[in-house]
Design brief:
The chain has helices at about 15-20, 30-40, 50, 60-65, 70-80, 85-90, 100, 115-130, 150-160, 180, 190-200, 220-225, 255-265, 285-295, 315-325, 425-445, and strands spanning about 140-145, 165-170, 205-210, 230, 240, 250-255, 275-280, 300-305, 330, 335-340, 345-355, 360-370, 375, 380, 390-395, 395, 410. With about 450 residues, the protein is α/β, with parallel strands linked by helices. It folds into three domains: about 15-20 and about 240-380, FAD/NAD(P)-binding domain (3-Layer(bba) Sandwich); about 40-130, Alpha-helical ferredoxin (Fumarate Reductase Iron-sulfur Protein, Chain B, domain 2, Orthogonal Bundle); about 140-235 and about 380-445, FAD/NAD(P)-binding domain, CATH 3.50.50.60. The strands form five sheets. Strands 3-2-1-4-17 form a five-stranded parallel β-sheet, with helices on one face. It has a five-stranded parallel β-sheet with strand order 6-13-7-8-9. Strand 7, helix 14 and strand 8 (about 300-305) form a beta-alpha-beta unit. It starts with 14 loop residues before the first helix and ends in a 10-residue tail after the last helix.
Length: about 450
């Protein structure tokens, strides 16, 4: 067991315990299970589940194809709308989207397992290496895509299918963006994120350049002068600060970095974790960090959120998952100060909060939670300073309904745009739709008018 200078340790569990803790959260259905699950679908004519899907997958059709023994046909139905349907089947909050809209989702019944059925079909296609699309004849046009995350990959694939040459530029050493670096390890095991990236890129006509950062290695002006069109799928790179003293102490870390490091770790036993961990935030990142801290062997993990349970961005399913793993979720408390001992974290002083006159405010009552490690998960930020004259609002890129930005020949999508809901499936939809818009403009041989005034 390794002891680090701030008291945080690795190797808390046995190899068998790590393997069990980080096994697949929802294993793939076998053939019989898939047929039974598919037979529960009513194949509704108005398909409320389809309306609830940001990528508008024809859910009744793909489930019917599974029920008739045609998983590859089912996969094509899914990929026609969402080329990253495999990862979305694993990470989408289906309980708040398609499955919530399912007509079988009542007090007496559970909804059709749409997410698991989608995984069943898409896994079958990816594992078989089955390709459903061929590139059209080359158009001679070249498009730059900045960011190899869900939005960028979806955009690049659709453009390649149309016959355009695509160059993806990404600052990281691996493609995948959030899917590779930003989700809990137990949601996508066996390096699935990279398998899906390889499947997407196998269409051909897409070159990926890693280690290329906008603002450092190239500018937006460089791209607009060298390419016929540009798509920005930048994601969110920064992390909000707590704004309290001593948040740079050993043992205070951001949850995003923790999750990314854990996903890239070849050996979970090498990842250090505190004995008592506090996670600050109420979204999916907070849940993923807290659950994985517990799975790494932390004895006590507490999520502190400044508002109530009903205000948390994390779905009810994810909240329940956290508590089932032993995570304590405490509401109506905000961080006030970090308590230190010999230069390391010893605890967190919190102030209880309440809604007063319609506004969140501290009550003046305080308490202390013992901790040797604190994770910040209070939101991520976007740096628009490298975007030149691009119009921003509330720190995000302004786009129209087709993904046009305020600059000619520049589109954007995903978490970096104004009005996004920080979902993988929504990023895929925006990348796909922007590609269709780019293709229409390039096919017409004209440049679009400035879309956003």
């Amino acid at each position: 067991m390794e002891r680090l200078k701030n008291g945080i340790r690795s190797g808390r569990l046995s190899s068998a315990e790590y393997d069990a803790n980080f096994s697949d959260l929802h294993p793939r259905l076998d053939n019989h299970e898939a047929l039974v699950a598919a037979d529960r679908c009513y194949f509704c004519y108005d398909a409320p589940c389809m309306t609830a899907c940001p990528t508008s997958i024809d859910i009744p059709l793909f489930i019917r194809q599974i029920s008739t023994g045609n998983p590859l046909g089912s996969a094509k139905t899914i990929f026609d709308q969402n080329i990253l349907g495999g990862m979305c089947a694993r990470v989408c909050p289906t309980e708040e989207l398609c499955e919530e809209a399912c007509v079988r989702n009542t007090a007496e019944e559970r909804p059709v397992e749409i997410g698991r059925l989608q995984r069943y079909a898409t896994d079958a296609a990816i594992q078989a290496g089955k390709q459903f699309y061929a590139r059209a004849a080359s158009t001679g046009r070249k498009v730059a895509v900045v960011g190899a995350g869900p939005a960028g990959l979806a955009c690049a694939h659709r453009l390649a299918v149309k016959g355009h040459a695509v160059v993806i530029l990404d600052a990281r050493e691996k493609s995948g963006g959030l899917n590779e670096y930003g989700i809990a390890t137990y949601k996508a095991v066996d390096d699935f994120a990279q398998s899906e990236v390889e499947y997407v890129l196998s269409i051909g006509g897409i070159e990926v350049r890693h280690g290329q950062m906008l603002g450092r290695d190239f500018t937006l002006a460089d791209l607009t002068s060298q390419y016929d069109a540009v798509f920005l799928g930048l994601g969110l790179a920064g992390v909000n600060a707590l704004g309290i003293a001593d948040e740079d102490l050993a043992g205070v870390d951001d949850a995003v970095t923790f999750i990314a490091g854990l996903r890239q770790a070849a050996d979970k036993a090498a990842v250090a974790i505190g004995r008592r961990v506090v996670v600050l935030g109420g979204g999916m990142t907070a849940i993923d960090a807290a659950v994985q801290a517990k799975l790494l062997g932390a004895e006590e993990v507490t999520i502190c959120y400044r508002r109530g349970k009903e205000h948390m961005n994390a779905s009810e399913f994810e909240q329940d998952l956290a508590t089932s793993k032993g995570v304590i979720i405490r509401h109506w408390m905000a961080p006030k100060s970090i308590i230190s001992d010999a230069g390391k974290v010893a605890g967190l002083e919190v102030e209880y909060t309440a809604i007063t006159d319609g506004k969140l405010a501290g009550t003046g009552e305080t308490g202390v939670i013992a901790a040797d490690q604190i994770f910040k998960a209070i939101g991520q930020t976007f740096d628009g300073s490298v975007l030149g004259g691009l119009k921003l609002s509330s720190g995000r890129i302004v786009i129209d309904g087709e993904g046009h930005t305020s600059l000619e020949r520049v589109w954007a999508g995903g978490d970096c745009v104004l009005g996004g809901d920080d979902l993988t499936v929504s990023a895929v939809a925006q990348g796909r739709d922007a590609a269709e818009s780019i293709n229409r403009v390039l096919a017409a041989g004209q440049r679009p008018a400035t879309a956003v005034a």
